[in-house]
Amino acid sequence: MTMFNRLSFGAARPLVAVLALLGLAAVPGRAAMAIQEVETSGGIKAWLVEDYSVPIVTVRFAFRGGSTQDPSGKEGLANLMTALFDEGAGDLDSEAFQERLDDAGAEMRFGAGRDAVYGFMRVLADQKDDAFDLLRLAVEQPRFDQAPMDRIRAQIVSGIIAEAKDPNTAAQVAWRKALYGDHPYSRRDEGTEQTLATATTSDLKALHKRLFARGNLAIAVTGAIDAGALKHDLNRIFGGLPAEPSIMPVAETAPRLAQEIRIPYDLPQTGLRLAYPGISDKDPQFFAAHLMNHILGGGAFTSRLWNEVREKRGLAYHIGSALVNNDHASALVIATGARPDRAAETLSLIRAEVRRIAEKGVSEDELDAAKKKVIGGYAIDNLNSSSAIADTLVKIQMEDLGIDYIERRKQLIQAVTVEDVRSAAKRLLSADPAVMIVGPPLEDRKG
Amino acid sequence: MTRAVIHPCFRAFALTMLALQAFMTWEAAAAEAPRGESEIGNFVLSNGMEVVVIPDHRAPTVTQMVWYKAGNADEPSGKSGIAHFLEHLMFKGTKKHPAGEFDARIAEIGGEENAFTSSDYTAFYQTVTPEALETMMEFEADRMRHLVLKDAVIVPERDVILQERRSRVEDNPEELLEEEMRATLYQNHPYRVPVIGWMHEMEQLSRGDAVAFYDRYYVPNNAILVVAGDVDTGTVWWLANKTYGAVPRGQDLPERVRPQEPEQNTKRTVVLTDPRVTVPSFRKSWVAPSYRTTEPGEAEALDLLSEILGGGTRSRIYQELVVKQGIASSGGAYFQGRSLDPSSFTIYGSPRGDATIKAVEDALDAEVRKIIEAGVTDVELAKAKNRLVRSMIFARDSQRGMANIYGEALATGSTVYDVQVWPLKVCTVTATEVQAVARKYLNPDRSVAGYLLPRETATSGDKSR
Fold this sequence. Notes:
The complex is a heterodimer of chains A (447) and B (465).
Chain A: E1 4-5, H1 13-22, E2 36-39, E3 45-50, E4 56-64, H2 77-82, E5 88-89, E6 92-93, H3 94-103, E7 106-112, E8 116-124, H4 128-140, H5 146-162, H6 167-180, H7 193-197, H8 201-211, E9 217-223, H9 227-238, E10 259-264, E11 270-277, H10 286-298, H11 304-311, E12 316-325, E13 330-338, H12 343-360, H13 364-382, H14 386-398, H15 405-414, H16 418-429, E14 434-439
Parallel strand pairs in A: 3-9, 10-14
Antiparallel strand pairs in A: 2-3, 4-8, 4-9, 5-6, 7-8, 11-13, 11-14, 12-13
Helix pairs in contact in A: 4-9, 10-13, 10-16, 11-12, 12-16
Chain B: H1 8-28, E1 41-44, E2 50-55, E3 62-68, H2 82-89, H3 101-108, E4 112-117, E5 122-128, H4 133-145, H5 151-170, H6 173-185, H7 199-202, H8 207-217, E6 223-229, H9 233-242, E7 268-274, E8 281-288, H10 298-310, H11 316-324, E9 328-335, E10 343-351, H12 357-374, H13 378-395, H14 399-411, H15 416-427, H16 431-441, E11 448-454, H17 455-459
Parallel strand pairs in B: 2-6, 7-11
Antiparallel strand pairs in B: 1-2, 3-5, 3-6, 4-5, 8-10, 8-11, 9-10
């Protein structure tokens, strides 16, 4: 049934996904969640949170090296590969594999990001052995048979063609190109009709061999399983993989700023997007920037942009900002969909708020409230289910932040002062941004 | 590799017993203030507000949801969108807590919040730490009756919902077709009206309209409180009485009787051509009973039918159209059983490669016909039951997900007991019953077919379909 809400996170998903990643702080209240570090005899490491209240086991893992590893001219290969892990492995063809997986009562998913390939399995605890056997086959011996490969490729191509005239897709493609030029980050993760046409089974096998190794693997497990059983299972699932991957180096890059991209379409709303310099999560000023972003546009329902653009003036339904961090680039991005007749006004309001925070910083009260939200919100945003916990623990490992990170992060946030925020705001927001306008031209309809 | 397939009824039985055991103990002890270690608590405050408690002690968080039994199907005619507009306006403050204070208080403790409106209900929720639950209840109880709506907030917030409509419906051809299909599928029932409202009516919504809807429906005897998380039933009983219990009962609301569908005897077609579309897509919908209006067992059979016909990659539609024939890039079916009045059953698909939309439509129809004529096999039925029962176990991993399941069921006329015995009821459905609901409800002569087409195709002759 159609549902409408105060703020649809569907509309703002790219921002929210990033926020979930960044909103780390400490678990409030009683006993902190106990994370065990498990290492098998075969040298496979995983973080485990045991919990027997629901009889399920959740496994999440990631292999470093995502769509950036697609060979030039073969864009979309990693994405295609991740759609084929349940389409036949070992001695099981597609049909047999999927039937077994269904009988085992397991959910299994893979996906390719820019910097990593992700895997997920969720299974009822009493059926985990059957499910883990299938996961081992998928990870170790995917078949990439011609028939399922052709079918999945055709589905992906169909999706690409279907979006060919969609202004929002056109805008996304143009945005990446404008920001990242020839860097792998400028490419479409799903590739194009032409690049996918060249993909072969041997390309997929080669990519799988390069990326799926024990040396670039991070694993987190939650649920009804103890360390002893898990060690045994980890050896079984991942033990047959090669020790080291073969990853192509990816250049460090930064988005190109000081440009304007116009995508003129006759649309019912005007999409506005602005990119400013970002900041690495290893940078000493990172948390100052994180809190600054929260106050500017990161906090749903409370941020300055929310209040000025939506609450006071009703110019947009969704408006927000986020620090977008990839392994090799970062940016601060502001996005909204504005009333076309007042889009010019919306854009200048946004730029005025950016100037205000860059020049004047934030108040003690604002900073205090932001710290409370960012610290207290950790458990609620990141640990609200066993899948969410496993997801968070994989991300912490992928960023090399350490098993004590959750607690340490709280202190780092507490230590930020208004001067730190002002300095971070000045550093990121004094630049002339990249601006994209999707929809009717602004000049025609000034409000 | 061993292959032990656990019989779905075994799991369903275990799941149901686990839930019922605690529930029954609690019912027996309901006269006194409860001390809760029980699985699910369920009681009614003296002002008529129903309460459901779903203890889940895995993490120190708790979700409170308040569901009002009023959605867009309860709107006065000509005021479409007022239920959703009021949902937005509920954040504009009270005498005691001016606008922004509730949001700030939630943010201060790291909480998360939102609200949503559907045809049958409007709900508000916060996820916070257990210590903050009482404060959340106090704020939520306060705005149940003490909302202050100044004229100054009406116009900007109405602009927000107009912008929301542009952003979520008009910017999206799929949504536009969906909206038109509902308006065609329901010939008389208010489910035909979009939840967000028709643009021309939304533009006219006033403060008076919002206040009238608020005064009529936002009363404790028309509300359900669902609390899920790190709390026990006893604590919730005490806090709910202290906060919501102090809100006076409103006037009794009449039964929720809306205009019902006449007998449908036609096959209707909706075509949307849009320059933003490149690959066409097809869907077909029927009016089907909901869990509240169904004959016993029919809604469960419809859930299983939709799972077998189009519930994922193991379904008949996916296997036949996408895998075997290779004519579709996607395809499936869904049934929306949790609604107050008869709901809908839908099949859909999109062609791939050189296949035409007609080929996809014919193949979808053929899959429906096969079930009507030859039924489903015992093996596929057992597997579909396994998947549905399993989904209830997986659902327990999400605190808010559980609150949603119970809240939605109660707001659409079901009970806590109905939700708890659902797995058992699913597992007792027979293959004959699945075939019977397919035959009874998926009649091609009273369906609505929807086509989303690229602009060229439409002008070059395909539109006669």
